[in-house]
């Protein structure tokens, strides 16, 4: 949403190991794709807070550290296969993450 407000057309594809990636992803320009990752421990906290806010059981697979590590390994494998830049957003605000992406895009257009 933040990048869209900066006139950057964006899409977000959540990566779930059990759900196949749409084939069109492999046809998109690599220079317009970015992989976003987060430290597993930070992601556990985010997901636990989300579950709590929704009134759901915090002991679910969704916030399990081993499950999250598996998801991150899957994501990193895909990013490597796609040959796209990976940005660690663990300690970054949305604005900082968007700035990094915009800087990558500027470099590629030069």
Write a concise keyword list for the protein shown above.
110 residues; 3 helices; two-stranded parallel sheet; 5% strand
Structure commentary:
The protein is mainly α. 44% of the residues lie in helices and 5% in strands. It contains three helices and two strands. It has helices at 40-53, 65-82, 94-109, and strands spanning 35-37, 86-88. A two-stranded parallel ribbon has the order 1-2. Helix 1 packs across helix 2. It is globular, with a radius of gyration of 15 Å. It starts with 34 loop residues before the first strand and ends with a helix.
Can you lay out the helices and strands and say which pair or pack?
Blueprint: E1 35-37, H1 40-53, H2 65-82, E2 86-88, H3 94-109
Parallel strand pairs: 1-2
Percent of residues in helical segments?
40-55%
**What structural category do the secondary elements indicate?**
mainly alpha
Please provide the ordered H/E string of secondary-structure elements: EHHEH
The main sheet orders its strands as 1-2
Average pLDDT for all residues: 93
> What is the number of strand segments?
2
Low-confidence stretches: none
Largest sheet: 2 strands, parallel
Strand content bin? 5-15%
What's the short story on this structure?
By secondary structure, the protein is mainly α. The chain contains three helices and two strands; from the N terminus they run βααβα. It has a two-stranded parallel ribbon with strand order 1-2.
């Amino acid at each position: 949403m933040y990048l869209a407000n900066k006139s950057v057309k964006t899409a977000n594809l959540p990566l779930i190991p059990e759900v196949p990636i749409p084939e069109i992803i492999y046809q998109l320009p690599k220079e317009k794709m970015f992989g976003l990752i987060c430290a597993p421990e930070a992601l556990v906290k985010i997901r636990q807070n989300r579950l709590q806010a929704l009134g759901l059981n915090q002991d679910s697979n969704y916030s399990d550290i081993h499950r999250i590590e598996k998801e991150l390994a899957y994501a990193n494998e895909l990013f490597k296969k796609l040959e796209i830049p990976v940005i660690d957003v663990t300690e970054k605000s949305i604005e900082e993450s968007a700035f990094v992406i915009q800087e990558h895009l500027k470099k590629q257009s030069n």
